[in-house]
Request: fold
Amino acid sequence: MGLPILDLVATLADRRSELLTLVPDAAGSTRQLICSTFADYFVENVDRLNAWVYCPRTSLNAGTNMGEHRRATTYHQAGTSVDFARAWPEALTNAHGPATYYMTTRTPWWKLRDAVNAGIADIAIPYAGPITQEFPVVEHQYRYTLPSLPGSIVATLLEEVSVSISTEGNYVGYPYATATPYNWRLYTTTESDGSTAYEIQFEQVPPTGSLVRLYGRAPLRSTGRTSDSGVVACDPQYDDVVQEYLLMHASYLLAKWDVDSEPVGKALYALQIATAALTEARATLLERLPRGPNARIVVPGRGDGQQLAHPAGADATFLGAFHQLH
Reply:
């Protein structure tokens, strides 16, 4: 199933004892949120409240408030409500059904998410997961652009290119053979805007209608500052150790970032604790997770120079099907 990044950020905030999950109890306004949950956290009026409220993009009943954040300025104990200095796009209400908001009492939501995303980037390549992708061969077409969707194979982690033996669409699961005889090579093109395209060039075109299968590894993906629907795709048996590492790494970064904004002694002490926790989490990660192979260097005109036994062998002639089709 993977680890939803929204849940990771919420767990991080909860561990820091600064998370309130809010669902409006009654109709508020664009500058006021009413929720009885406030009474579980605040015990009196707060005239100078320093907190942030975020509406996740998954909270569909919130309308145009989704993805927005506002700074809360005042809490009223009598009405269990908070006021905002800047108005929300829509009134904070449950008129369209339950809508979820997150309050963090010290750290803005996007800063928490940045810290989680940084941890994902830290282990993205070393712990990339296996993936296969396919595309059909078009007649007289020698060059094909690799898919660039999230979770796609990164060119440096491409391990094998194979071609389906049968072109019949009803042969589900039919064997594949290595594409080495077609002398594939990899091209990388980076445009002036920074976008990069990866293309496979064949010296000889595989049979028209056959499928080219790419076997490689896809790095763990971070979602950026504005997404709430991302998932860290890792093997379920390692979910716990990956989650713990990401949370410890995020806590370390937040402590490091706070050194410049809090009293030095307090900030350095927090940083020391976070560093020790991160070191322990990293050791556990190295011990339990299988590391992916090193990236292979692709030589133009020579492919990657290797023929793997998995998922397609270098020699498919042992298959009876091969002799039936060739």
